[in-house]
Amino acid sequence: MNISVIGGGITGLVAAYLLSSQGKKIDLYESAHFLGGQASTVKLGGFRIERGYHHLFKNDYFIRKLLSDLGLHKSLSWYKSSVGTFTQGKLFPFSSPSDLLKFYPLSLSNRIKLGLISIFLQNKKRWEDYENISANEWIKQYAGLKIYETVWKPLLEMKFGEFYEQVGMPWFWSKMKTRFASRDLLGNEILGYLDNSFEELITTLKDRIEGMGGKIHLNSKVIKINQENGSITSIIVENLHKKNKIKTDLIINTAPSYELLKMVSFDKNYTAKLKAAQYLGASVFILLLKNKLSPYYWVNVTDKEIPFLGLIEHTNLVDKNLYGDNHIVYITNYASYKDPIFKEKEEVLLNRYLLHLKKINPSFKPEWVKDYVYNAVSAAQPIIPINYSEKKPSIVSPIKNLYIGNTTQIYPEDRGTNYSVKIAGEIVSLITEKGEHNEK
Ligand SMILES: Cc1cc2nc3c(=O)[nH]c(=O)nc-3n(C[C@H](O)[C@H](O)[C@H](O)COP(=O)(O)OP(=O)(O)OC[C@H]3O[C@@H](n4cnc5c(N)ncnc54)[C@H](O)[C@@H]3O)c2cc1C
User: Fold this and answer.
1) Which residue puts its alpha carbon closest to atom 3 of ligand 1?
2) pLDDT at 30 over 50
3) Which of 25, 30, 96, 167 is the most buried (most CB within 10 A)?
4) Backbone dihedral angles phi then psi of residue 176, each to the nearest 5 degrees
């Protein structure tokens, strides 16, 4: 049986690795010239770093198990994280319960209420109770307008841009659970990072797949999935402007849903499911700086005057010695991929952002920037609406022998590499159980 995997991000690589381990013949097609998708890395100042900031949580069991199976668990180190919030022209610490108690933009009674609501959500077991309410509505109703406007609305906006009102409450519930599950006994958030970046995982998966006879094709975009009588037959792959028809028995698609819909048509019901969650794009600069920008790993920027949503200072989590004593800072923005920022010249965008870094650190000077990389991702974040369990596309598609695994199927958790590993495992179990026959 010839199995084609579309997409060489974490989902595609892990699915290809697991199937290769079972002796299956795999061909993986990746449209980019590199593997890893959203978790891929670039070189900045001679150092490997993720195109988008990446950390792991303590309860990311699926990826931690994979790292152990691959013998990479020793490469995963744990660090104390720190969070700040830039609001009303000032940078506030926002890491611990005591920071919350000192957060003067809220009254003392509202600070206590915010703490109690956080504890309530951490202990709430059934996310299903929240299926039919948006995060926005629930927070307004239970926390009140002041807490919503001051703390959570800006955070929802940071993550979902203009679509923040559409996000279902299960997403918010799971986010609170994950972040609190990754705390130590003193309440400090503990985050994991791979010593040699995600590149070590990506390269290990690639080597294992190829070592077991699998083939990886870069610069290879799948543009069409052919089917006959409701069963897939072949794919058309575009490689450096040449189109090749390749016969295949089974396909795992890990490309975003809108890409899949360009390759093949489904019935009305499944098409609606593939369109149920829209995607946000991410616009990310990685700066190599001479000096430290802020005291925090993660800064939520909720000040309306500033044209970006977050600053992630990687070297405030991981030691700067690993990067030749340089400081690595991500400037991040999420927006619809149709937003004009994705059409702007990167130097123009960067210069606009740099003007505002002085507000975060008054001694910042543009000369601090020794080097930078810009990265725009189109399917960075699915926007998961209310009542999503009935809208979520199933892994087993209505077309025989076509399986789907992408970030729109991660629910109620937020998308992340841990859940990409989980979905890859689920796809492989289904294929193993059903053999070639995936009819429901
Ligand atoms: C800015 C940012 C920060 C993040 N931070 C974290 C974090 O801290 N921790 C964490 O765990 N996760 C984080 N994530 C999320 C995580 O990276 C993703 O959830 C995960 O990598 C998704 O993997 P995937 O394989 O499902 O999708 P992708 O990585 O999107 O892979 C899909 C692949 O398919 C390819 N493709 C698309 N169309 C075609 C086609 N027609 N033919 C062939 N190939 C095609 C794409 O090029 C891509 O490589 C972050 C994501 C972003 C954008």
Assistant:
1) 52
2) yes
3) 30
4) -65, -40
